[in-house]
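tool_call: predict_structure(chain=1)
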Amino acid sequence: MREKISGEIFRQNIILPDYKGKEFLIGLYGYGHNFANGVRFSLDILELKQAYRQNRLNGKLKKMVDTLKDDDNNVLMMVTFK
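tool_result:
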């Protein structure tokens, strides 16, 4: 993202309260893939299971990962912007 007046460039990222220590980068060279009014991320199932074992997950994400197996598909996270 570029600030119009100063021209300064900022890196956008998303931090989830339900996933401690995980940062999602937005942009051409980030992890996300843009769509109409947001971005989507693929969360690796093995990484999620490891984060679960390390007690780094909370809330709905923790409950969901608890039901998944190591050979399940990755989790798709959709973030929409208002």
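agent: The beta strands are 12-15, 23-26, 33-35, 38-43, 75-80. Proceeding to next step.
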